[in-house]
Amino acid sequence: MTDWLSPEEWRAVALSLRVSFWAVLASLPFGIFVAYALARWRFPGKQVLNGLVHLPLILPPVVTGYLLLLTFGRRGWAGQVLDEWFGIVFAFRWTGAALAAAVMAFPLMVRAIRLAIEAVDPRLEEAAGTLGAPRLWVLATVTLPLILPGIIAGVILAFAKAMGEFGATITFVSNIPGQTQTLPSAIYSFMQVPGGEAQAARLVAVAIAIAMAALLLSEWISRAVARRIAGP
Amino acid sequence: MRIEIDEISKQFGVTAALHPVSLAIPSGALVALLGPSGSGKTTLLRILGGLEFPTSGRVLFDGQDATGLTVQDRRAGFVFQSYALFRHMTVFDNIAYGLAARPRASRPPKAEITRRVTKLLELIQLPDIGSRFPSQLSGGQRQRVALARALAIEPRMLLLDEPFGALDAKVRKELRQGLRDIHDETGLTTVFVTHDQEEAMELADLVVVMSMGRIEQIGKPQDIRARPASAFVQSFISA
Ligand SMILES: Nc1ncnc2c1ncn2[C@@H]1O[C@H](COP(=O)(O)OP(=O)(O)O)[C@@H](O)[C@H]1O
Ligand SMILES: [Mg+2]
């Protein structure tokens, strides 16, 4: 079952899955927090935060990648701090690819979750408060269960976006086979060499299959969850 | 519990929802906040419940300043206008919510929670609906479940925003009596909001007539009928 893709192709597919998985998982708590803040709180600088979150959606991905390199690269201020304090390095590592994917997918994730939060009647949370429930308990027992379909939609959307991210990733962490060569970068590389079309085509097929699977899965999960939340 | 509202005002940006208002509610009273839409009834009720904080003035519970008390610490049973039941939970879990949300040290054991919820379901005369979801209930049943959920925390007072607003005439009459009975049985100081003067006059011991963020008159129903304090009250109660 493994021999219809070469080891090199497998590495790209596996790396893309790993990068996207961690990009989504690590950004999800921030995504929920930012979505909640944008949906429910009033604070100075809210429009600035909203703009920042959405920036990767409108900037050319190359620009986002370049900014990531400036900030999180070896000589970037955040890159140095993270390296010295936590030993986390992004430059030319798969972690950098995950960071780029997370940043690019973040607006989609936040948007889906924010819409779900806005659809929850704030009086439900207020009611829980009058019954004595602390805010975190309210979040866990009222808000999160009610927005679960939105979170799932956001996660799948972000995952799909992360799988397809190319421009920011290649700018930030380059295209090193086995290190930072994700599925899209691999397709791009194969297309640059004579006779690589067959390899590229196989990876394109894999990309399509993964996208379809993600779509079907999200459809199935959100139906199941919607049924559970609405009651029988 | 005795409630005092001392020169409370509330400003939403440029709109004054409440001009300084004062009101003393004796312990165990059943009070109606009566007035047309936009007169500040809900705002006053939410300030009592700790869901909104006044721009100026104080709230006193049994003589103690409660103005800054958080919503969790007020222990005010609050029934929302549209009931705000948790649609992803059964009726049982809705009613048990306040007990289950307590910190471990003060949370009653499971059997005790079950016992109390069962008792409350009997009190609202719906003993068999514990396993249903809110979407499977009629409007009147939802209102009673919301009431039971508020009572479950053994509140110090009961606050209800238009509790009969969304119901048809026959159910309204039944539930009015239901609220009266529960009030008499629990002895809780109860404040409810209504724009229906007949409802206020029939149900309340004390009626507070409000208009445009001010209190126009406070009195027993018969006194307000006999001696309306202003032209507004006169026209509103004869409407
Ligand atoms: N959260 C809010 N933000 C801005 N204005 C509000 C808010 N709540 C109430 N108001 C305003 O305060 C006034 C009184 O409202 P409310 O207390 O809801 O009246 P009532 O319950 O008597 O209909 C209205 O003019 C209303 O528009
Ligand atoms: Mg109102």
How would you describe the overall organization of this protein?
The complex is a heterodimer of chains A (232) and B (239). In chain A, helix 1 packs antiparallel against helix 7, helix 3 packs parallel to helix 8 and helix 6 packs antiparallel against helix 7. Chain A has a single domain, classed as MetI-like (MetI-like fold). The model of chain A has no long low-confidence stretch (mean pLDDT 92). Chain A is globular and about 70 Å long. Chain A has ten helices and no strands. Chain A has 232 residues and is mostly helical. By secondary structure, chain B is α/β, with parallel strands linked by helices. Helices cover 37% and strands 26% of the residues of chain B. Chain B contains nine helices and ten strands. Chain B has a six-stranded mixed β-sheet with strand order 6-7-8-3-9-10, sandwiched between helices. In chain B, strands 2-1-4-5 form a four-stranded antiparallel β-sheet, with helices on one face. In chain B, a hairpin with a 2-residue loop joins strand 9 and strand 10. The two termini of chain B are 33 Å apart. The model of chain B has no long low-confidence stretch (mean pLDDT 95). The chains are: A mainly alpha (232), B alpha/beta (239). Chains A and B meet through helix 6, helix 7 and helix 10 of A and helix 2 and strand 6 of B. Magnesium ion (MG) binds next to helix 1 of chain B.
What is the fold-level CATH name, i.e. the topology of chain A?
Answer: MetI-like fold
| Backbone shape of chain B | globular
Number of helices of chain A: 10
Low-confidence stretches of chain A: none
**Biggest chain contact:** A-B, 22 and 30 residues
